[in-house]
Amino acid sequence: LRQGASSADGVIHMGFSNDFSRYNEAVDMDLAAVRAIGSVLEGTGKPFVNTAGTLGISGLGRIATEEDRGPEGMPRVASEEEVIAMASKGVRSSVVRLAPCVHDQERHGLASILGQIAAEKGVSSYIGEGSNVWPAVHRCDAAHLFCLALESAPAGTRLNAVDEEGILMKDIAAAIGRNLNIPVKSIRGEEAQELLGWFAMSAALDNPTSSAATRKLLDWTPTHTTLI
Questions:
Q1: Is 132 within 8 Å of 166 (Cβ atoms)?
Q2: Which H or E run contains 92?
Q3: 42, exposed or middle or buried, with CB in 10 Å at 0-12, 13-18, 19+?
Q4: Please, what is the Cα angle at 189 between 187 and 192, to 5 degrees?
Q5: Which CB contacts under 8 angstroms, 24+ apart, belong to 56-60?
Q6: How large is the angle between the packed helices 110-121 and 169-180, nearest 10 degrees?
Q7: How large is the angle between the packed helices 77-85 and 23-41, nearest 10 degrees?
Q8: E strand or H helix at 206, and its extent?
């Protein structure tokens, strides 16, 4: 990574292990990679774009913005903060925070996990009233934002890759139910753990997120289809 970064005009770091059974290892590996890349970019003025997620700024009781920061100790927050701090070390650093549903015609981000669970269980479920929301962005719009960040994001910038600020989890579950032709059901407590397992905590997060500052700063305008 050091060798590749030192010879590049700039770096976009998107690699991350999706083996959720070893998630803590993946987080540690990501931070080590960020530090390795950053160590050879210091003082060069080159761009370094890191990747994070908007779920790290969930549960604020309002719409999250680019100014919000994830709580210390939250997975991947250290990686984000590490790159932002590189702005003071001569790196044009920025972080693109992806919505949980980065989608196209084939895949739908974390909503695909809900779809897989629904197919296995024979029911598409949402927690409680399903009034918590997840933001979404089309894969091509997210890719465009990464390019804009590499080209012109100011040093120390947080960017939110969000098109739709918040889609009701009840509506996501309903769309999955229609596609799979299975019933849609509200679940709570122990039933949520039984049906959703390790994913129950993520499915319960409320993550309304704005990208207004990102759009204005980089003249980014999502143009592709919405999630549902």
A1: no
A2: strand 92-98
A3: middle
A4: 50
A5: 56/80, 56/97, 57/97, 57/207, 57/209, 58/205, 58/206, 58/207, 59/205, 59/206, 59/207
A6: 50
A7: 10
A8: none
User: How many CB atoms neighbour CB 135 within 10 A?
Assistant: 27
| Cβ pair 196, 203 in contact under 8 A | yes
The angle formed by the CA atoms of residues 161, 50 and 217, to the nearest 5 degrees, is: 45
Mind listing the pLDDT tens digit for each residue in 48-93?
999 999 999 999 999 999 999 998 878 889 999 999 999 999 999 9
Strands 164-168 and 133-138: antiparallel
DSSP state of 47: E
Q: What is the pLDDT of residues 201-228, one digit of tens each?
A: 999 999 999 999 999 999 999 999 999 9
**Please, are residues 128 and 206 in contact by the beta-carbon 8 Å criterion?**
no
Secondary structure (3-state) at 124: strand
- Say if CB 158 and CB 112 are below 8 A apart: no
Tokens 């143009």 locate to 223
How many Å apart are CA 162 and CA 100, to the nearest integer?
9
